[in-house]
Amino acid sequence: MLTQAKVRYRTTIFLQEKLVKMVCVDDRTRVNPLVYKFPLDVLAILHNHSALAGLLDAKERFDAPKCDPSTRIGIIKKLTNWVESESQSLPSSLLWLHGPAGVGKSALMQQLGLIMQEKGNHAASYFFSRTAVGRSDGNSLIVTLAYQLAMNFPPIRAHIASNLNKNPGIFSLSNKVKMQLLVVDPIDKLCATSFWKRFFRERFLRLRSTMQIPRLVIVDGLDECDNQDIQSDILLLVAHAISQLRLPLRFIIASRPEAHLLSSFNNSIFDKISYTHINLGEDGDAEHDIFLFLTKEFKEIRLNHPLGRLLPDPWPTPAQMDTLVMNLQEDLYILRRC
Ligand SMILES: Nc1ncnc2c1ncn2[C@@H]1O[C@H](COP(=O)(O)OP(=O)(O)OP(=O)(O)O)[C@@H](O)[C@H]1O
Ligand SMILES: [Mg+2]
User: What is the pLDDT of residues 150-195, one digit of tens each?
Assistant: First the structure.
């Protein structure tokens, strides 16, 4: 005969085993029942509506300029720490990287995107270009970001599928609706469904949550998107998304400091979120970077030019190098004030 205590003990063990099975499944591999209800090929649908030429590793952007090794070291470290910080109460989730033409914003964004991709922390990125084909349409941005989020963070696919199923015409709706239904809502639903799972894991099983989210979202060259109104709209949409998102995504928007973008920061939404900005034109490492860059380029000329072996050594002399670095810095200073 089982005593009451034994029955209670066995019931507890049985429930614990069930619970362990329920909550110990990795978020990335678990098959969500929603997928069966809405068997849409989310990636294929988003892929068909994305502007793929603007992706970090798009074939159209093959060998895109990036930072020379040993340049921008300080700022890359600063941005990497900002992206990777575990703190939920960071001073900001939005960073505006601005600076004059040619100062190296896109090169820096490319470099940071590649570093984060290697570390599994690249969520999505888009590189606008006013001249390259298929890279200036602001209306394609949100879908292209959602496509990458779905690719890099599979658990949100089922929630995007659900919204696509309810709104098949979503791709011709406004950017605001697209941001809500393809990015904010799927992420928030996922957070809501995984809340209890994480709660049990951490509270009762003393396991750390396994939900690994890639963090970094880059929008480079916002000023190169084809319409100033859409540029401002995108900036505000990102701010609104940040104010609602429960995940610690980090958004970087890089652009020249155009007047209409500056005035968009006066919108009241920026009182609700914390954001920061960096003027790349004022990066303190510039002099050192210019010196390293010139040294490398002159070394290559000596090695590769047919008359390189006839050059005097050293070439240029230290005094000539100082003058070159000073002149280039002055040029940058003039650009900064333009
Ligand atoms: N750290 C760096 N190392 C090597 N080359 C660089 C670096 N920064 C910039 N460059 C070079 O300078 C050129 C201009 O840089 P980039 O396109 O990144 O400027 P930008 O600030 O994005 O300009 P724009 O406002 O026109 O978009 C590029 O061709 C790139 O190769
Ligand atoms: Mg650029």
Answer: 999 998 999 999 999 999 899 999 999 999 999 999 998 888 876 6
- Beta bridge partners, 124, equal 217
Name the residue type at position 80.
Answer: T
Lookup: tokens for 265 = 């920061």
The whole-angstrom separation of Cα 336 and Cα 106 is 16
- Structure tokens given for 70: 């040993």
Distance 103 CA to ligand 1 centre (A): 6
Ligand 1 binding pocket mutation candidate from 76, 103, 111 (most atoms within 8 A of CB): 103
Please report the DSSP string for 272-326 in residue order. HS-EEEEEGGG-TTHHHHHHHHHHHHHHHHHHHSTTGGGS-SSSS-HHHHHHHHH
pLDDT digits (tens, 9 = 90+) for 137-151: 999 999 999 999 999
Q: The pTM is what?
A: 0.79
Q: Is 74 in the pocket of ligand 1 (CB under 6 A)?
A: no
Token duo for residue 286: 């510039």
Please give the helix or strand (H or E) that residue 123 lies within, else none.
Answer: strand 122-127
